[in-house]
């Protein structure tokens, strides 16, 4: 059994790839994503289209399919996947937002021998389960970890993660990542849990941070779970009279965050880099369909990217270009 | 130290105060609640909580929710609810940031625009409540969702983002979004101003009695010549205005307006009013009570962080306080009524 038949199977597989590559040559790639007017997804779409420029040069195309709204996300997205199959896609990129609703549609893609890449949501587990080529996306835990590691390496090793949404799985993942990231540099951290009545109220967040800093004078590193929370956290630090001695990293960014990084009141922002998700998912498929090349690295992480004083100007230029 | 304490009983005696009449004041329950809660957290929180950092911490919280709780309490006294404040706060922040930040107009235009949004939402609430028989709870929930949707839509349309940044000029910032002594938010002083105006309105001006009459028996009030519809519309406009004011103060303080947010103000403002002795069915309540209720709420909210308690414990305490407040309100009211009948 074994060695010979394995080699034979391998040869057969590569022959099949060569054959498809020979016949197709130009790839018509369909990308399923969010609403194009959604700020995050507009960047993913730009990434996909920029990578699609190469496909177009080779005679292929990139088509973006997004739902009208997010009211019925799983079934709507599954319908878009089937639409892509029907329109004769050579390759499909899709996020596995709601596995129960979307898995059957992804299985239909694989059954039709259409190369598939899962991106943005679902993780490498769903790519493996469905037989997709790869997964391209960010991981919440690693985003928090990057923040902890960044502050820890800068010498700020006693930390707290400001959790304004206790109970949400992705937020818990940010915080446990942050604490583990700090620990990896020899520091230690804990979670400052806010009551549910504080979420969305910047003053409540700022005052909670301030009280916590006064009661725990050792703390010199904070992690906030979003752009708005980061601004509130910075205000809390100022009111505690600890500007300059307590350093903050936060998830995501907006113009206020970028201005704070420029001004030095925020150490870093963690970016999930949506542009990369669209760009690499489309590139991987285009090269695979056109030339039969593969990316053996499984699970392509597009985040976390770190924005700090060293690259903030470049990020601002990226924002103006619509890529960040 | 000992002389003021010795003088105190004499002072109260000359001004005609007695424990008996004090306890029959409608605010008595709220005052006792505040003192008990403050002592509890003072013991757990220690010197820091009792010092300036502690006071500024809970006063900052109290000021913002307090500015909204005043008109919301007034509406409750007149027998109505206003849920839409939760959507007016972010709508006002975003309006202000878009006008003055995105379009670069003078700060006064942004502030005026944001306050107009609040007044307009209040006007619409009031018109629907007075022209139809739909309960205000439902009307203002509906308006809240409509305003939330419009805010999100507008921000995404104009800015392409769910947050809008705005850096106010130093004068505006110092009036609306600065921290005095590095810790006391200027909104505390605005809150004091609101308290003075609302106190005059409810307890000194003749219109105040109309508000009570509205909540006690709207039909009779109208028959007695109270312009009930006009009064209600103005009350809703006051709460829209106050919520918009808080939205402006937040954008001036944090220099960033978020589309989502403001939701906590809905229940927090109602809780402050109820802990402060406002009765849900209308007809009873006072400004001092609402202020005490707000202070109690804020002390619990911030006290938990100074006392190093689990924040969930804070929520349990607030829930328990709310129930205790409703129960004591009933008993104090019974006491006050029995006293009044005895006097006759």
Question: Can you walk me through this structure?
Answer:
Chain A: Residues 1-26 form the signal peptide. Chain A: It is found in: Cell envelope. Chain A: Belongs to the bacterial solute-binding protein 2 family. Chain A: Keywords: Signal. Chain A: This is Substrate-binding domain-containing protein. The complex is a heterodimer of chains A (324) and B (344). Chain A contains 12 helices and 12 strands. With 324 residues, chain A is an alpha/beta fold. Chain A folds into 2 domains: 3-138 and 274-303, Response regulator (Rossmann fold, 3-Layer(aba) Sandwich), CATH 3.40.50.2300; 140-271, Rossmann fold (3-Layer(aba) Sandwich), CATH 3.40.50. In chain A, the strands form 2 sheets. In chain A, strands 2-1-3-4-5-11 form a 6-stranded parallel beta sheet, sandwiched between helices. A 6-stranded mixed beta sheet of chain A has the order 7-6-8-9-10-12, sandwiched between helices. In chain A, helix 9 (227-239) links the parallel strand 8 (221-224) and strand 9 (247-251). Chain A is elongated, with a radius of gyration of 22 Å. Mean pLDDT of chain A is 89; it is low at 15-24. Chain B is mainly α and 344 residues long. Chain B has a single domain, classed as ABC transporter involved in vitamin B12 uptake, BtuC (Orthogonal Bundle), CATH 1.10.3470. Chain B is 78% helix and 3% strand. Chain B has 15 helices and 4 strands. In chain B, the strands form 2 sheets. Chain B has a two-stranded antiparallel ribbon with strand order 1-4. Chain B has a two-stranded antiparallel sheet with strand order 2-3. In chain B, helix 14 packs antiparallel against helix 15 (311-343). Residues 1-16 of chain B have low confidence and may be disordered. The A-B interface holds A 37, 39, 42, 166, 193-204, 206-208, 210-212, 214-215, 227-228, 231-232, 235, 238-241, 254-256, 259 and B 48, 53, 56-58, 60-61, 64, 156, 160-163, 165, 167, 179, 182-183, 185, 250, 253-256, 258, 260-265, 267-268, 301-302, 304-306, 308, 310-312, 314-315, 318.
